[in-house]
Structure formats: structure tokens, C-alpha cells
Amino acid sequence: MATRRSGFSRTQTNRGNSCKNIFNKIRQGQITGVGLTRGSQIPVALLEERDKRAQWQGIPVLLRRLHESSHPNSDLSKIDSMVMELSSLLSMEAMSFVTEERKTPQESVSPNTYTFDLFGGVDLFVEILMRPTLTVQGDLPILSDDLIKDCLSGLYNCCICTEGVTKSLAAREDFVMFLFTLMSNKKVFLPTATLIEDILSVRKEIIQLEKIPTLASLVQSFNQQQLANFCRILSVTISEPDVGVDDKHTLLARSTQQKTSTCTSRAESNQVALLNIPGFIERLCKLATRKVTEAAGASARLELEDWHSWLDNALVLDALMQLAIEEAEQSSTESSDESSLSSSPLRHRLPQSMKIVHEIMYKVEVLYVLCVLLMGRQRNQVHRMLAEFRLIPGLNNLFDKLIWRKQPSGHVLHRQNQNCDCSPEISFKIQFLRLLQSFSDHHENKYLLLSGQELNELSDIYLSANIFEMEALNNTDRNLVCDGKKGLLTRLISVMKKEPIDSSFRFWQARAVESFLRGTPSYADQVFLLRRGLLEHILYCIIDSGCKSHDVLQSYFDLLGELMKFNIDAFKRFNKYVNTEEKFQMFLTQINSSLVDSNMLVRCIVLSLDRFESQTKDMKVVEVFSECRLLSYMAQVENRLFFLFRLISIINVQTLTQENVSCLNTSLVILMLARRRGKLPFYLSALREKEYAEKYPGCLLNNFHNLLRFWQHHYLNKDKDSTCLENSSCIPFTYWKETVSVLLGSGRSSQCAIGTYIDEAYRDLDRDFMEL
């Protein structure tokens, strides 16, 4: 209850206390199971008398009457009016809660929903909904669609306004599974889906989709709009929980977690269950790529940055909700595309850009589900289906008109890690870029991002360089690539060049392009992108643009590394752009400002230098080598030692994450190349001298020893990571393992073992790194 002013009379205060006493007794009974546990146990006369004083809006009395009229053998058709009246009271409060203050339940007083829950309304609505499943014999009670809608609406509004209701519903496995069966009724689909989404978002445990009765037939019965809405629910069921998965969680913690959980996760099982549904992926591809009818006149347009004010308007919310209901009622067939909805009068009353927002919101959910499936264990199966159903060509056809339409002036940029409500269009762009990244990352299907004409260009590059075509390019089915002259990759590079310098889209754009280059370096792929001015644009962003975003800079360092690796043409272009000492020093300053962000580029330069040094008979290589500031700088052993020392210093076993473990691998690359040339003892001795110069003897080498022990623990049990290391470095993984074993050697006489260079007084090599 709200806090009362000190000016109230004693009588008013006593009345307030009487009402509170009833609340307290019921709440205490619900906790202990002793005494009053629901409002139906209180005499009607007492409820009516207290209702006038407490302004309960008649909710306890209505619930008492509803309880008496909804026993197992009652005619549920007679309770419609009572349920509707209760639901209306809750809806008005929820609408006020959502549209006005937008306060959290802890900050807001919601007397109607609180009273409804306290007097057993939530449990009673659940009982009414589930009555058909609880009837053992006789005729099953029939619930009207309006009755079901009102019950669902009441429960959802309680979830919004009253703390704890959502969690209590989420704890009822039987009720959650029952809700899924309601989704087969198209007239109650939307309120059911909304309630399920709210409930699943607070569950600690992911539900098992295979336990839903007739899951396959249920999903196949959905029209396209319903399937898109269902994807909002699926996103919660197929994604691993955040704990231990995010980059900010240490690899040590994740390793411990994986040891304790060896069985297949529920998220993985749910992904398999969805892939086993006939036609599921094909329908998602159709949803993701279907077109939106453009309005003939520009006067119908509403700029999408105004979407917040439109959606805050209750009339527009009602219009969109009604639109979805009309679509559900119209579409009893499989397809519910834009043309089949053109007869809806409501649809013509909505501004064109609201229709676009409506479609974009669907596509965000669909792309998210496809992205998660692409990153799962069934990745190859998903890839085959996405290629077969032409997802990439379809997205390419939407790129200019929907995905990357010209941004209006004054557009508020969404930056990486910024806590804000993304507009649907911003979310759509980011989800689209994440999908491209997942699609092309270490997979031969990446060439589907190109057009047939661009594939011919790649073949010509191989031919001109007298290099054999990569098998993946040769095997690409040209019937499945992008239509027209430009593929998605080229379009993406074009918009990236026009993006405002600190836009977070640059981060996702660079990640998507980088994923195309990941894996075994491809000379033709690199030249294809070099021809489009990508290297010069990246260098401009790093050196000349004044970009301050660490996320954007990191993505460009990584992309630059993949673009230049082993490619002498790229180093020649680099030297042409970085043509003054001032520019070169600025470039080095950016690299050194955050080695965690730039270490992949450092690794690229070291690897490329090692290869070029062995190509002394190639006059082109010799010429570029003699002129390139970057290669000359890294060729100096003291500079390589400087990077090695810093790389080992900025990490330890306890702080290793998926983001900074690359620093450990880059330090290993430097030492592996030194070992190849018989210089490993020199490097280890230099590290020892650096320790003593810094007056921390043993600190650096003990730390490195522990890091390498963890490296063995982490990589020798993971096939994917080891393959990535081998492909990206062109160093056999066996050599990685051998080098680590040599460095961890126990013999004091070995000149290649770390322990040899640590004085006995400072040795700390035997402690379990899990205990550090």
C-alpha cells in the first residue's frame, strides 16, 4: 500500500491497518500453509466491508464469486463476464504502468495486480485455463476463445506489474508446457506467445522442446507471422546461458564448468529438435528474405528514428496488435506474405514505415535463430540447408531497399556495449552482420557471398598469379551465389566506407568481412578486397580518422592482419599509404596503445616477415622488403623481443579469456619461429635479462610457464581451436605442441626449457595453476 500522510485521522489509519492485517494474514498463510491462503476463504461480507475502505475495486469479491462458479463440474461458459471484468481492471493498470512511468515493480505500486495475486487470482486463472487437462472423466469443459484471452491477458499484466508472479509461473513446468498447446489456436496465439516469452525469460533452466506435445505438427501449423513470433520464444531455448559463455568470463572458469557438465546441453538438444522438424529452416529462409511492399508516395513515410514515440502511443500499439490478430485469422494456409495481407483495411491505415518496422521486427528474430543454429554443433547441416534455400542471394536482393537503406540525417548511433534500447532497424543491421560473420567464418560456403561475375574475377586472379584455385572456390555451386553484378561482400564494403567513423556498425562490418578471410590465407581473396580499396580505408581509420573506439580499432587491426598476411602486394600498398615517418609512428602508437586489441596484427607481421625472409630469390619480395618500414621495423630482433615481453606480461592464467588468449598464441608464434632458426635459447635468455632489469626475477618466466601448462590443458582437448591455429598460421599443430613441450621441459640442462632460465630461489613451477 502507498505510504499515508501524517494528516490522516486515527480512524483512517486503523482502517488502513485492518486492510494490511488481512494482506499480512493471507501472505503469511501462503508462506506457511497454515491459516488463510486465499481470498475465497474469507466471508463475503467481510470482503465487501473491507473493499470500500481499501479501494480494492471489488477484486476480492469478484475472485470469491469466480472461485465458487468455476469448480470442476461447473459450466465455465457462465464465468466469462467475471473473468473479463477482472482482466479489464488489470489491463488498465498495466497500460498505465508501461506507457507512463515505465517503473520497475520495486519502484511502482500496482494495487490491482497485487490484490489480484494476493487473493489467489493468478492461481485461479491458471486452474481455469488448465481445467480441460485436469478433467479425468465425462465431457471436457469448453473454454471460449475470449475466456482464454482474458485469462492470458490477466496473467501477463500481473507479470508486468507485480514482482514474483513471473517466477512463480515459470516454476510450474506443467503450466509452461500447457501454454505451448494453446498456440495451436490461432485466435489466442499472440497473447499465449507473449506470456510464454515473459515466463521463459526468468527461468533458470532452459525448457526441453522435445517435451512439448506434438512439437513438429504445432510448428508446421503456424503461418509465417506466427512462426516469426515463435522465433522470439525459440531464441531463449536454443541459446546457452550467459554464465561462462561471454568473453568476459575466464577460460579457467569455463574449463571448470565444462568438466562438471559433460552431457549435451538442453540448448544443443533443442537445436537438434528444431532441425528435425520438416521444412523449418526453409520457412525461416523465406521469412528472412521476403520483400516488403514499398509505398508509392513518400508522404506515407515515417522516419524510423521516431519509432519510440510511435510505439509509446497506445492507439498504435493496439493497431499493431490488431494487425497481427487479423493476419492470424486471415492466414489458415502455409504462406502469409505481404500480398495476401493487402486486403486488410487496417494495414492500409498504418504508415508505410510502420509496416517496414513490423516486418523488420520479425526478421530480427528469424536472423537471430539462424545465427545461433549456425554456431551450434549441427553447423554443417544448417549450412547445407541455408545454401539450398538461397538465404544469401535473398538477403542480397534486400540489401539496398531494406537492410541498408540510406540513414536519415541526425541518426543516433548505437555504440558497442552501450546500454540502450535499439530501434528495430539498428537491431536488424547488427543481427544481419552477425549472421554474415557466422556464415562465412571458416566455411567454404563463404563464396556464396559473391556474385557469379565476382567468382570469375577470383579465378582470373589465381590464373594471373599462376596459383591453383582453392578447392572451396572450385566447388561452389554457381546456382546458389548472389544475383547481379555485386554480391553481399562487395555491398558490405561499400557501405562500410560511408559509415560515420565511430559508428558501432563499423565493428560488426569489419568482423563480417574478416570472417570471409579467416582460415588458410587465400591470396586471391586478399587481392579481391585490395582491389576495392579496403586496405587504404582501414589505414585511414587507424591513422588519420581520429577514431577513438577500442572496439572499432580492434576489429580493424584484426581485419588488417588477415588482409596482409603473407601478401607482398598488401605490404607494398601499406608502404605507399604510410609514406612518412610521422604516419608510421602514429601507426605504431595505435598498435602499442592496446596490445590485446592489436596482437593479431603483430602476429601477421611476424609470420609474413618469416616467410618473406625465405623468399630471397623473388625480386618483387626483395624490393618491397627493402622499402617497407613495417617489415624493416619487425626485422629488428629487439622489437620482436619488446612485443614478446609485453604479450606475456599482460596476461596470466586467471585472466585469460576468449578475447585475450590470442596474446598467448602470438607470443608462441614468435618463439616457434625463433626455434625454427635455432634462436630459442637467445629469446629465453633475453626474457630472463629483462626480468632482472625490471627487478622482478622469475616473475615473467614463472607466469609464462603456467600459461603454457594451461595452453596444453585447453587446446589439446579441443579440435576446433587447434585447427584454427594451424590454418591461420600455416604452422602444423604438431609443431605447436612440440614447441610447448620443449618450453615446459623439466631437464635443467635443456637450453630450450623455461625452467633452465629461472634461478632456484625464484622457481615456482610445480604449483597447480587451477589453485593459483
From TrEMBL:
Pfam families, per the entry: DUF3689
GO annotation, cellular component aspect: Cul4A-RING E3 ubiquitin ligase complex
GO biological process, alphabetically ordered: ubiquitin-dependent protein catabolic process
GO MF annotations, alphabetized: phosphatase binding
Source organism, top-level taxon: Eukaryota
Protein name in the entry: Short transient receptor potential channel 4-associated protein
Organism, as annotated: Culter alburnus (Topmouth culter)
